[in-house]
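Good morning,

Attaching, inline, the backbone tokens for the sequence recovery test we're adding to the shared suite. The designed sequence is right after.
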């Protein structure tokens, strides 16, 4: 089972060669569910824009495997727009 990158800037990748289907769940550190679905052996997940940087819990559950992993969401890409004003009078 591969889960990478960790820490992540917003997207994680999951690859499994042993199990074809998992229940995928992401919660915050307090247990509030962010996302859950059934995934196949290869999956890509991107954190929503409104989710803050921090530690999240990833749970993968299948009939023969249970995996829990802390995911560190850091340096999340944020679009910043600057408005510049110039006074060009002489």
């Amino acid at each position: 089972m591969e889960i990478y990158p960790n820490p992540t800037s917003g997207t994680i990748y999951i690859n499994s060669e042993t199990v074809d289907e998992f229940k995928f769940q992401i919660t915050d550190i307090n247990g509030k569910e962010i996302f859950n679905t059934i995934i196949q052996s290869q999956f890509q997940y991107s954190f929503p824009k409104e989710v803050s940087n921090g530690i999240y819990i990833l749970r993968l559950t299948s009939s023969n495997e249970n995996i829990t992993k802390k995911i560190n969401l850091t340096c999340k890409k944020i679009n910043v727009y600057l408005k510049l004003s110039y006074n060009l009078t002489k």
